[in-house]
Amino acid sequence: MTPVVHGMRIGIIGAGHIGGTLARGLVAAGHEVAIANSRGPETLRELVTEIGPGVRALDAAQAAEFGELAIVAIPFGRYAELPPDGLAGKVVIDANNYYPERDGHDARLDDDRTTSSELLAAHLPQSQVVKAFNTIRWDHLRDRGRPAGDPDRIGIPIAGDDQEAKRVVTGLVDQLGFDAVDAGSLADGRRQQPGAPVYGADLRTGELRDRLAA
User: Fold this and answer.
1) Which molecular function term from Gene Ontology is one that the record holds (predicted)?
2) N vs C: which end of the chain shows fewer Cβ within 10 Å?
């Protein structure tokens, strides 16, 4: 049975296509959202007006403090700017991807010694990091949600080391119209990184499970 996640305070750090789309969907699902970007709350007035009640614009530190749960949707190369203290003790959803042409090369990732999510978790040692929402295009996240039980429902892989954190994330994924498919530990999150067979594939839930198991 999919966990039911009741109204939460959620901080979203990153107001690009993925962050903005998640803010819209989560407010519609009954959550209270604070969203931040690197340019300041005043630059988010249009987005906040569009979404309406249930969302506010704050700076990154304030959004981190505000949320019972946080979503990180910023360029991976800036992950070290995130505030560990404000995110301590919280579930942090990592929607980032490592793109070396944008983020600069990181030898630890280029030779597959670790994953971007494990580096984020090392920066946030008191948070429970779950990788999710990094494989789907923002417009598909906006448009392709389906009711529970729909045979065409798309699966979204999630990876993490904390089972309770993954349970919470599973509930949020369901509210947005998708099925969370457990991809394993945070280290196993390499199976949903750019270049992996499931990345950008928009697979039905059963097909995603099969591909992750292959």
Assistant:
1) oxidoreductase activity
2) N
- pLDDT at residue 122, as a whole number: 98
What is the structure's pLDDT at 1? 62
User: Considering only CA atoms, which of 78, 82, 70 is closest in space to residue 34?
Assistant: 70
> Global pTM?
0.95
Supply the mean pLDDT for the chain. Answer: 96
CA-closest candidate to residue 181, choices 203, 197, 149, 164: 203
Q: Could you please report the per-residue DSSP string of the chain?
A: -PPP----EEEEE--SHHHHHHHHHHHHTT-EEEEE-TT-GGGGHHHHHHH-TTEEE--HHHHHHH-SEEEE-S-GGGGGGS-HHHHTTSEEEE-----HHHH---HHHHTTSS-HHHHHHHHSTTSEEEE-SSSS-HHHHHH----TT-TTPBEEEEEES-HHHHHHHHHHHHHTT-EEEE--STGGGGGGSTTSTTTT---BHHHHHHHHH-
Averaged pLDDT, 146-175:
97
Give the distance, in angstroms, between the CA of residue 139 and the centroid of all CA atoms in the same chain: 15
